[in-house]
Amino acid sequence: MADSEAAEMRNADYWDGRYSNEDDPATKEWHVGPDKLEGYLEENIYPRWPQGTTPKIVQLGSGASSVPFEMYSRGYTDQTCVEFSAAVIAQMAPKNPAIRWLPHDVRNMPEIESNSFDFAFDKATFYALCAWGPTHLLKSIPPVIVEDTAAYSREVFRILKPGGVFVCINIFEPRYVNHLLKVEGTNWTDLHTPMALTPAGWAVTRAYGLVKGPIEPTDSEAAAAA
Fold this sequence. Notes:
With about 230 residues, the chain is an alpha/beta fold. The protein contains nine helices and eight strands. The chain has one domain (about 5-225): Vaccinia Virus protein VP39 (Rossmann fold). Strands 1, 2, 3, 4, 5, 6, 7 and 8 form an eight-stranded mixed beta sheet that branches. Strand 2, helix 5 (about 85-90) and strand 3 form a beta-alpha-beta unit. The protein is globular, with a radius of gyration of 17 Å. InterPro entries: Lys/N-term_MeTrsfase_sf (IPR051419), Methyltransf_11 (IPR013216), SAM-dependent_MTases_sf (IPR029063). Belongs to the methyltransferase superfamily.
């Protein structure tokens, strides 16, 4: 994929065009499918919310992935998919009308209340926001990528409940991901160290697990509260 095309992945029009031109509304996976994710979710995520509980789950930029449907089949029925491509929603929403679909951009979700979700899941949305930037030279990251990923991270942090979990699946190196997600206005702590989901190679798919911690007051806020 050329850099010019990869750069367009941050825009809804790109995905509308891509999915509007496809006759087959079959699910499609980026990086890894549910089969590769199963072991990771079984060990690190599902035990936090055993079957019978009803965590509120938000799928961020869910695209044509089957992950929401797989989770639903396991009993995790309180799910919201946030997707800015109308063409994707038109294809995927009929597959399970019980899953809510919101036509929002993950960088700006004003209609979603703060502190409202237990678990946020992203498979390749972060990747789409910065796929055309370098994966390791932090000083060379284009400013628009820094802005997009910071806005995204702050919005995910905002809509999660305190102690809520954010899992981000992508192929970028840990220091690159941490640099772009652990930004001012957030206080992410690590649920675990980045976990490889695919064998070592030129592009390793990793699971990054983050937990929403409390925001420390600024000096002026602390002084005012004293």
